[in-house]
Write a structure and sequence with these properties.
The complex is a heterodimer of chains A (233) and B (227). Chain A is mainly α. Chain A is built from seven helices and five strands; from the N terminus they run αααααβββββαα. Chain A starts with a helix and ends with a helix. Chain B is globular, with a radius of gyration of 21 Å. Classes of the chains: A mainly alpha (233), B alpha+beta (227). Chain A: Keywords: Membrane, Transmembrane, Transmembrane helix.
Chain lengths: 233, 227
């Protein structure tokens, strides 16, 4: 499972990149919260067997929300969201959805233990991890998509098991199975690889630059851009 | 190297977040050019030992560039940079520097033998590798920097992921896909141009493409406001 701080960092990076004029403390908080929402299926797994990386980590929720947003803002004659919150509400809504799907769900797909993309239609965990390169001797080599794999699922990705056979361990639910397991050891991972530390530091530095209170009117940017980076590293 | 495409993907996300009103195709092109430029140091490999991940991949040159830009735009009475490229250009220069540090040097720092962090001041490759977690049994655990205490002499040894110097480290790249001595003896040379070597790198490529596509699809706020 992607470390929770990394999920928040990816949400913050998306917020900075996509909010545009709607960027402020509140809207960033909304997008980061949306990115963290899928993580809550780990809480659900305390009651529902195999809910982690499945219940909120599937394609259906983002698709349904996107359909709903599109219907409300583009197809209906009067959009409830726009009437209530104006243009900013629509922008924050779409970016929050991107935070949910792209920062909240997607990172889990690219590393063990994977996500159950089609849950609850099928309960197979998929993981997309491999390599893609061009070699002067072997031509194009790719191992992300495997069409020949005889896994249990419908999609042509490597499978790591089903919600029944594979229990995903999280800091909320260390053994991945229903029940509180109060006595067991819990690990809250901040980052578990160098690149994750880099992404986290980039997000902190980006937000520091965007929010920097020391901006002077008339000067575009300052030396702070790099210094903020140095400090957070 | 982490594939240039991965650098570019992460660079697009960071640039989109920092460029504000200066975001357009030309600004992105400048940022991407700055992100790809350091790989040129792999061309120096045949004439300088350990040039790749050294000449273009350190934190000293970016720090010097930051000092130069801030001296020119803040302290001097007439800024050469601002006169030539206006405020917009100054902002793009800062963003390009930020992106170079985070999306290129720092990402490579966390890959293979790392980068020559303080070259040319100090010749040593460092690799950023480890994890940081809080465990209910062991408390805060970090493995990025190893600190060893010799029980007999009381000497403290700090290892921040040092992997060697330009003399001992060769980071494989398409120009020199293996150690130069091995290459001299090899009959066929397999040059590999990676796109994404792991799932998370494919994710960063996708994240960059998604960001640019989403920015294109977004409506113009001023036009919508007039409705």
């Amino acid at each position: 499972m992607t470390p929770t701080p990394l999920t928040a960092a990816l949400g913050a990076l998306l917020a900075a990149a996509l909010l545009g004029p709607a960027f402020d403390g509140r809207s960033v908080a909304v997008v980061v919260a949306a990115a963290l929402l899928p993580t809550l299926d780990a809480v659900a797994s305390l009651a529902i067997p195999g809910a982690t990386n499945a219940l909120a980590h599937n394609v259906w929720i983002p698709l349904a929300l996107a359909g709903l947003l599109y219907w409300d803002t583009a197809l209906r004659e009067r959009s409830a969201l726009r009437e209530r919150y104006g243009w900013r509400g629509v922008r924050v809504g779409w970016v929050a959805l991107a935070g949910f799907a792209v920062a909240g769900v997607a990172p889990d797909l690219f590393a063990e233990p994977g996500v159950s993309l089609l849950y609850p239609v099928e309960n197979v965990y998929y993981v997309v991890d491999g390599l893609l390169l061009f070699s002067t001797q072997d031509g194009v080599v790719q191992t992300f998509v495997s069409t020949t794999a005889d896994g249990p699922g419908l999609l042509p990705f490597e499978s790591t098991g089903t919600t029944e056979t594979r229990a995903v361990s999280t800091w909320v639910n260390p053994d991945g199975r229903p029940g509180l397991a109060l006595g067991s050891e819990r690990e809250f991972v901040v980052v578990d690889a160098g690149w994750q530390a880099v992404v986290l530091a980039s997000a902190v530095a980006s937000l520091a630059v965007r929010f920097r209170p020391w901006t002077r009117a008339g000067t575009e940017t300052g030396p702070s851009a790099d210094e903020a980076g140095e400090a957070s590293r | 190297m982490v594939s240039s495409i991965v650098h570019a993907g992460f660079a697009l996300v960071l640039a989109a977040g920092l460029l504000r009103g200066s975001y357009d195709r030309r600004a992105l092109a400048v940022v991407l050019a700055v992100v790809l430029l350091p790989e040129v140091d792999s061309l120096l490999g045949p004439i300088m030992s350990g040039a790749h991940r050294t000449v273009g991949h350190n934190f000293v040159f970016p720090a010097m560039a930051a000092l130069l830009i801030s001296y020119d735009t803040r302290i001097r009475e007439r800024s050469l940079l601002r006169e030539r490229v206006a405020d917009r250009g100054v902002r793009i220069a800062w963003v390009a520097l930020f992106v170079h540090v985070f999306a290129h040097v720092a990402l490579d720092w966390a890959h293979l033998e790392g980068v020559n962090v303080l070259w040319p001041l100090h010749d040593a490759f460092f690799s950023l590798d480890g994890e940081l977690l809080w465990s209910s049994a062991d408390g805060l655990v970090q493995t990025f920097v190893d600190i060893e205490l010799d029980p007999e002499t009381g000497d403290r040894r700090v290892d921040a992921g040092s992997t060697g110097t330009t003399q001992s480290v060769h980071v494989n790249n398409p120009i020199e896909p293996d150690d130069p001595e091995t290459l001299a003896e090899a009959e066929t040379i397999d040059r590999r141009f990676p796109v994404a070597g792991r799932g998370w790198r494919l994710y960063l490529v996708g994240l960059g493409l998604f960001t640019v596509l989403a920015r294109r699809l977004q409506g113009d706020p001023t036009a919508v406001r007039e409705d």
